[in-house]
Specification:
The complex is a heterodimer.
Chain A (H helix, E strand, L loop, with lengths): L2 E3 H15 L3 E5 L13 H5 L4 E3 L4 H13 L3 E5 L5 H4 L1 H14 L9 E7 L14 H7 L2 E3 L4 H13 L4 E6 L6 E3 L14 E4 L4 E5 L3 H11 L6 E5 L2 E3 L3 H11 L2 E8 L4 H12 L7 E5 L9 H7 L3 H13 L1
Parallel strand pairs in A: 2-3, 2-4, 4-5, 5-7, 6-7, 10-11, 10-13, 13-14
Antiparallel strand pairs in A: 1-8, 6-12, 9-11
Chain B lengths: L1 H7 L6 H23 L14 H9 L6 E4 L4 H6 L4 H8 L23 E4 L6 H14 L6 E6 L6 H12 L4 E7 L2 E2 L2 E2 L8 H7 L4 E5 L3 H16 L5 E6 L10 H4 L6 H9 L2 H6 L4 H24 L26
Parallel strand pairs in B: 1-2, 1-3, 3-4, 4-8, 7-8
Antiparallel strand pairs in B: 5-6
Classes of the chains: A alpha/beta, B alpha/beta.
Bound molecules: thiamine diphosphate.
Amino acid sequence: MPWLSYRKALNRALVDELARDPAVFVLGEDVRVAVSNVTAGLLKRFGPDRVLDTPLSEQAFTSFATGAALRGRRPVIEFQIPALLYLAFEQIVNQAHKFSLMTGGQTRVPVTYLVPGSGSRTGWAGQHSDHPYALFAHAGVKTVVPATPEDAYGLLTTAIRDDDPVVVFAPAAALDVRVDLDHDGLAPVPLGVGRVHREGEDVTVVAVGHLVHDAVAVAEELAGDVSVEVFDPRTVYPFDWDGLAASLAKTGRLVVVDDSNRMCGIAAEVLATAAEGCDLVVPPVRVTRPDGAVVPFARGLDLAVQPDRAQLTAAIRKVLKQ
Amino acid sequence: MALLTAVAAHAPDSDVGLYRTVRLIRRFEERAVELVRSGDIIGGIHPYTGQEAVAAGVCAALRVDDMITSTHRGHGHVLAKGADPARTLAELAGRATGLNRGRGGSMHAADFGSGILGANAIVGANGAITAGAAWAARQDGGDQVAVSFFGDGAVNQGVLLEAMNLAALWRLPTLFVCENNGYATTLTVTDAVAGTITGRGEAFGMPSVTVDGMDPRAVLDAAREAVDRARAGGGPSLVECLTYRFDAHHTWEHKARVRYRDDDEVRSGRERDPVEIQGARLTCDERTSVDADVEAVVDAAVAFALDSPHPDPVGALDHLYATGMRARPGGGG
Ligand SMILES: Cc1ncc(C[n+]2csc(CCOP(=O)(O)OP(=O)(O)O)c2C)c(N)n1
């Protein structure tokens, strides 16, 4: 079977959606030359009217996409780095997201914001290493963080077809993940439906994005000793609360591993919801970046603020001891 | 009824049509301010009185299928573009029958059926949305034009300048209309704008003119030239309209008792009244009949708004997601 990388999966999703729906177009910085590789080949196949190189005007091109969406288009914006979302926060959260309600349902804004290379990229330091998905989840913007190539394909496809704005975070640490997969098996993945990567009885580990792979590895390591269930929400907003509840009904123990800041993060929300509505036999534990972390440059410092496998293992042991 | 039909028969770009629009906006705003005072409109409004010639002149140069985006001071634009006054007023009063079903209020009035893509409460935010809508319309093969209205305060917002660059670079059928009323809330334009407002447009290679924004015909002439150029593929233009806001920045201003304009200035500003300037171009009979027509329309709008039901709080978050997704409730229990 052919190998499919995460990056290529994003590319295939764009190709397939551009081919399927003439309302779809792609815009962003250097998308024609495809500096990120994600938009490779699109210009040649779909031409300059469907693949727009924009000037460095994040605020304008983000709302330009909104305006085009108001006229029936389905724009996909590629952002070169996650920090650009801070520049365009007004345009996404305050404009695109609010249009449907504020107009009393007169319109929809089906824009997809694709962020390939989110989270720490080795050696890119403070302004290139954030993973700000919780901000969008908090604001109520649909937010997905695929972990695998097939989910990257499936969730990006669904995001493009969704009638609301959707932010798609593709973690830098997942871009080179490859799976042995029949390309014909690629299909849309619904938003808000989690995926159990590994069944287990003793503890549920909720892992987001690239950390799913770490969680599975830790689960394998502990296999003889502890039975770990790895739950990947895939979409952080809407979140698959039913899937989480079903897993916790089985295990009663919860660890969340999330590569974003601790304060008001996704892990906090998962813990709170589990505490409110699920039967936990022991207090849950979360493994995250520190509060308000800014990723430092030096490799050792960078790694020190990211959740790692040792922390996850310790967290699992902690909830099992009680 | 015969009277209404007679007035409606005049095209919006005729002298009678322009007068009807400025008069309609004026009376609508005056009545809306009364409804703020009586507590029927909560939160207050940004009155457009004094600036009517801009909305009337620009929108008279547009077709129904052309598009506009508007601002926090948007009622005039919305009415001039053809929204139903009764549903507009119902929106200001937060009623279920409002343009936005009571979800938008004064600062977000939108009517997609009339080409009104929404008023916007973030200063300078609408220009880029307008550019995107103009681009998509052109891609569809249409010759529609999209207009962005904004104040002199907005010309210092980076996103608006970014939008002008995109529009000029891609020769989009866009019209940037700056309503220079001399103030951004209390800050004078001379204390805020380095260079000139038309200079902003010229920097991007856009034809940019300044017109008398108190005279509907002067605005119409400039807008028509720019709209025709945009329709013919000639790209965007900037029209700066020199105008004057007769009333407060916002209805709270009377309570806040802020002072930033002296009485003489306001008095002389009000001397050039667009309703009078345009009214002088009509016969006495014409004017009387338009005034009566407008009065009937506004009376009916007030009655409609106040008789309309309030939206059901159960549906407070209806339309949050176009897909119908429901958010988790916030209450405890
Ligand atoms: C980006 C932004 N900054 C500040 C405000 C608060 N605010 C609302 S209206 C206004 C003044 C706007 O002045 P101008 O653009 O000249 O329009 P005018 O009120 O004169 O019609 C300000 C500062 C806002 N809504 N948006």
